[in-house]
Structures are given as C-alpha cells and as structure tokens.
Amino acid sequence: MSAFAEVVLPAIRWDAEKGFAPARADIERWLKLGVGGFILFGGEKGAVQALTRDLQEAAHGDLLIASDLERGAGQQVQGLTSLPPLLALAGLGREAVVEAATITAHEARSVGINWVLAPVCDLDIEPRNPIVQTRSLGADAYDVAHYAAAWTAACQAAGALACAKHFPGHGRTTLDSHATLPVVSVGRELERDLLPFRRAVEAGVAAVMTAHVAFPAWEPSGVPATHSRALLRDLLRHDLFFSGLTVTDALIMEGAKGGSSEVEGCLRALRAGCDLLLYPRDPEAAIDGIESAARSDRGLETHTAQASLRREEALHRVAADTPAPGALAGYAERGAALCQASVKMLRGDPPKVRGAVSIEIVDDDAGGPYPLPPRGAFAGELKRLGVEVAAKGERVVLLFADVKSWKGRAGLSADSVARLTTLIGPATPVICFGHPRRQLEIPGLGPVVCAWSGDEAMQRAAAQRFANG
C-alpha cells in the first residue's frame, strides 16, 4: 500500500455488455495500492449500488466516489432521474435549481456516490465555445453566482459533496481542453468570471475542479491553471479563501499534459496546489512517480499529507446515512415535470398535431466514441399519447445537437446543415435537442422548439409539448 496513493482517483467505466466485470482486476490493484477514491462513468442502478458497496468494504479507509451528474444522477446511472441541463434549470429559476440539486444528491447517495462533480460555474459567454454551452448556468456572472451557490448549498444539505468547476473559468475558450490546451488572453475581465466560484466558496463548496486552460495574463509561463501556483495557491486559496479540496479535471485530457508526460503533469499539478489527481490514464505510474519524486522533495511530501487531511475532512462532511428508499419517492415524477417545464419555443408558433406524424432525425451527435441515448423516446412518447407515427405523416425534424467533447466545435457540422436544408419546408417544425443558439443555424422560418439535450427524458418532454401544442 502506497502512502501517496490517496491523492489518485482512477476511473471506472461501465461496459454495456459486460458491466463492471472488465474493470475488476484493475480495481483490485488500485484498492491494494490505497487510492483515495474513484470516478464512475455509467452503470445500472443495482450494479452501481453493489459496486460502491464492494469498493467501500474492500478499501483501507472511506473512499470518495465521484461522478459527473450535471444533469441529474440519471446522466450516469440507468434507473435514476435525468434532469434538464443546468442552463435550462437556471431559466426556470432558483427553486428549480435547488430542487434539481436535492434530487441529484439524494439519488447519488442512494447508490453510494458521495461526490457530485457539479455545479459548472463557467459562463456561457462565448458562442464558439465547444464544451460549455448548456452545461453552464448562464451568461450573466451575477445570475450564475446566485444559482451556483444555491445548487451547492442544496446538494450538500442533501448529503453529497459538491464541486465547483472549472476554475478559474472555461467559458471564454474557443477550443476544447479534451483535445488541446486552450488559451484565454483576458486580464481584468477574468474577475467577472471568478464571481460564481467566489459565491460557491462562500456557500461552503467542498471542492473546486481546475481547468486545463492557460491564462497568460495571470500565469505568464503559459501552463494550464491545473499547473499554476499563481492561480491555485495565490488566487484560489489566498484571495478566495478556499480551504476545501482542489481536484484536477480528468488527466486523460490533452490540455492536462502541458507539454509533459502524464507523470510529470501529475507532479506539476500537486506542486501547484492540487489535492487530488482525477482520472489519470495510468494510475500506478502516477503513484510510482509521486513516491519517487517525494523522496527528494519534502515540499511535495508535505503537500500530499495535507491533501490527505483535506480528503478526510471532506469525507467527514458527507452524511453518514444514505437516504431511505421512501425519501426518493416522487423524484422521477418531479424530474419529468422539470423537463417538461424547460421545453420552450424559440421561433414561430407552437406546432399543432393534425394527424399522423412522420419523424426525420438529423443527428449531429453521431460519430463519437461513446454510446448515445436511444433516439426512439420521442416517437415512443407520441404513440403513448395517441399520436400516430407513420412514414407519410406530417413531417417533424428532430435535431440532436448536444455538447460532446469529441466534436471540437460549438455549431452544427456542414453535413447536418445540408440535411436540415433538404428536410425543412416552410412550416416544418424542428425540435432542437441543444443550445438555443442552434436556432440560428436552422434554415427557414418554421417553428423551432428547444429541448436542450438528447436524453430520453428530454425527448419525452418534447413529445408531450409537441402533442399538446
């Protein structure tokens, strides 16, 4: 067991055919090394619950079990509640934001996830940004700060740790840090971007996630914020008075490398002030590298010890008892109601169903490395509501244009625009499962409905809006 393994959090991914079985050998090795926790991607409700129970029982101490649940626990765990993206929730007001955070935290705890990697505190201020978009709580820094603090407080009051991300702000980038190192050249303007993080810290947020983004006006060396003492120690710790956990964004991302190997990137992150290393590609190599470097770097050894203490303090903040099953009753219905309330008209009059409906799909999200949500929920919900779906019915176009890390762009592809042009007539309704800005790329003047994301819950909500006019 390594004394330095506690700062490393490997990833566990669900396999659609084999479940978590392919990861079991890796998990056993990582637990023997003494890692401080894991980040989970995917899984069925029962399987996730069983996995987290096994992890905690096999661990040498309590583990942080994290997951990206910006759109509710159903974003990762099948059988739990899917919610609208944060931008849609903010449009519904503070009460909706608080309710969503509460549902997310309670359901996460019910399957053993004790750390929700949300809220996103980045501003939606750059139309060309390929990775923030609907994940943001809005464009106005004061509104985003208000909602981020509300989300944080509600999540943690419901028993799960929250995480404000991506410090000091990913909203101004035009490149995606999954693929490269974006550079933001602003200086004083960044003060506005910091406001949501300030309010989240004041609300007691347990953790802050760093951005793999360079800010040369604040860090002249040009390294990403993840490697910057000026941003993580001077700004975050000293100026914002943050005393909780600082965690890197996923270290498999290209922006995290900063021109170095993964091991060197891990060491730079720790020396800059990060407490936890999230999702390195090779956890064993990261741990070995930290051990080796600490032999001649007393400052690194001291920092990792402090990081372990902050991790323990964070775990003490997690409620000891998971919610009773009865406490979760009604969350599916409340989630569905939030999805329905978020669907809105962007252009034209609400479409009216006059007979059979023919559905055409333009999927701008196809082609990535991960499975997409099934695309049949819209049609299935129409049928359930008594609407006939037929090849020769009145045409409606479904445009799937969600935020995807592999795209490297904010807007639609040329192929998607070309297909829309061939499908859309003067009055053809379009249901857009993406940012409201996508309406500017949709040809014609016909009605456009915004349904925010391609999750099945949002497809059903859009179908209900469409069927009811």
Describe this structure in words.
By secondary structure, the chain is of the alpha/beta class. Helices cover 37% and strands 12% of the residues. The protein contains 14 helices and 14 strands. The strands form 4 sheets. It has a 5-stranded mixed sheet, sandwiched between helices. It has a 4-stranded parallel sheet with strand order 2-3-4-5, with helices on one face. A 3-stranded parallel sheet has the order 6-7-8. α4 packs parallel to α5. The longest helix has 20 residues, at 298-317. It is globular. The model has no long low-confidence stretch (mean pLDDT 94).
Provide a quick synopsis of the model.
By secondary structure, the chain is of the alpha/beta class.
List the helices and strands and how they pair.
Elements: E1 8-9, E2 11-13, H1 24-33, E3 37-41, H2 45-58, E4 64-67, H3 86-92, H4 94-110, E5 115-116, H5 141-157, E6 163-167, H6 190-202, E7 207-210, H7 229-239, E8 245-247, H8 262-272, E9 277-278, H9 283-294, H10 298-317, H11 331-342, E10 344-347, E11 357-363, H12 377-384, E12 394-401, H13 414-423, E13 430-434, E14 448-450, H14 456-468
Parallel strand pairs: 1-9, 2-3, 3-4, 4-5, 6-7, 7-8, 11-12, 12-13, 13-14
Antiparallel strand pairs: 10-14
Helix pairs in contact: 3-4, 4-5, 5-6, 8-9, 11-14, 12-14
